[in-house]
């Protein structure tokens, strides 16, 4: 089973990915302690991340009840990285919480630097 969020992300369908989110979604970043809240704010972050990752692909998916874990690989510049998107759905099937983890540290640092550059 491929989660609709993953299908949209891989297809480059930003609106489709955002459509899977609950209006009050919470995003836990691998780089920032404070969580982000709401579909508009999280959608903006997802759009930015899509411009930073290169060769992004999901390679595994696990599901247990309302939780889906998507294992991904990507590049940022010359850094290869791996990570997981942890999606927790509400009773309506919308993504209520999205937690992202990235390794190695140098890959995460490359993501942070590239996003800072995009933000100006």
Keywords for this entry:
Nuclear Transport Factor 2, Chain: A, 6 strands, 4 helices, globular, single chain, 42% strand, 120 residues, alpha+beta, 6-stranded mixed sheet, 36% helix
Topology:
Elements: H1 4-11, H2 14-19, E1 21-28, E2 36-37, H3 39-52, E3 54-64, E4 67-76, E5 79-89, E6 95-103, H4 105-119
Parallel strand pairs: 1-6
Antiparallel strand pairs: 1-2, 3-4, 4-5, 5-6
> Which descriptor suits the 3D outline?
globular
CATH architecture: Roll
Annotation field: number of helices? 4
Task: Tell me the total number of β-strands.
Answer: 6
Order of helices and strands: HHEEHEEEEH
**Estimated structural class:** alpha+beta
Architecture overview:
It is a single chain. 36% of the residues lie in helices and 42% in strands. The protein has 120 residues and is an alpha+beta fold. It has a single domain, classed as Nuclear Transport Factor 2, Chain: A (Roll), CATH 3.10.450. A hairpin with a 5-residue loop joins strand 5 and strand 6 (95-103). Helix 3 packs across helix 4 (105-119). The protein starts with a helix and ends with a helix. 19% of the residues are buried. The mean pLDDT is 95.
